[in-house]
User: Fold this.
Amino acid sequence: MDAQALSLNNSIEKQNPNVLKMLSERGKNIFFPKLGILSQAAQAKGKNINATIGEAVEDDGTSMHLPEFDALINLPCNSIFPYAPSFGKPELRDTWKSVIYKKNPSLKDIVISKPIATNGLTHGISILGYLFADESDTIVLSDLYWENYNLIFENAYNAKVETFELFEKGGFNTSAFSKKLSSIKQEKVLILLNFPNNPSGYTPLKSEIDGIVSEIEKLAKAGKKVVVFIDDAYFGLVYEDNVYTESIFVKLANLSENVLAVKLDGPTKEDYVWGFRVGFITFGIKNGTPELYEALENKTGGAIRGNISNISQLSQSLLQTVYTHPNYENSKLQKFQILKSRYNILKQSFSNTKYAEYFEPLPFNSGYFMCVKLNKGLDAEQVRLQLLNQYSTGVIVLGSVIRLAFSAVPQAKIPTLMENLYNACKDLDKS
Assistant:
């Protein structure tokens, strides 16, 4: 093992030996290289002659670039073309950390790490698989989940995904969650929580959140080493008053020295910049110290460095500029209201009792999506094809449920979507 990795491991063990046990073998071996090219390049920064970096520069020291870009992007040259740090642009990391506290006021003075930039949340989840998932590990998910989790944890890292039934009596199925957690025999338990959930569009209610946290705390009190990946891709898009509006990260970041909470979030869905590919990883654990977080940040930065080197400089610069714009909050609220209006129309549609003959909604209250469960033995894939071929309507089938992305449907077309779904089911019921 490299001396730099050993140094980070020693630092983690000194601060909290439980965290070292949570790391995968890859996670224990990774480090951010500070003694090689990057270190030498950093020492040469600002010198009269700098022949260290793998970038081309003009004679005046600015980044060499094609002049055709100048009319397209209104940002300083150095905010566009140079490599960004593997950890992310420092100013954007600081901004996003302050945003986490602002959006989650219950964090108060709990010490968390500085966010590390990733190439979107998919990349962030993959990096966490790298850092924490060994072949013998199990990742606990709800039975309604994003298919990329399989690709990352099972196909890429050979870990095992096990699921619990998400819903019971119209709400979060705490008993199934508890039963699944108690069935994990390994000392290390990996849990992934995604709220608002993709595909169901469900976020736990205020009355449900403490029950979920209590089940995780039971594991910690039993001596298990628990890592909770919190996929907050759709954070903030909550449309009902009784829903828990902060991230469950708030409840877990100071829960126990045996529970490492890892928040995955970013602007992709929150700020409607899907193609920018910027996300963040943030760590929280009870009695977490700056030294512990620095070591985890260095391991994360090292994994990113060895994976894709760094995140888009341009995307990060654009985001930092927009976050400081005086109209940002108002513009974001306007987009939220559009989504909420679509949600309300869709929710009201289910008051039409005729739909219940063929499909029923699963619980939904947030995010971009909702799901319907088919009745009368209808086959979801056949319904999807009927919608495509006869009604010019596209939906997603996930096992036995159909996902409707109301985020992508104009409000005026939502009643038509519902009628098309009803008619497609009716067609197949007759056939």
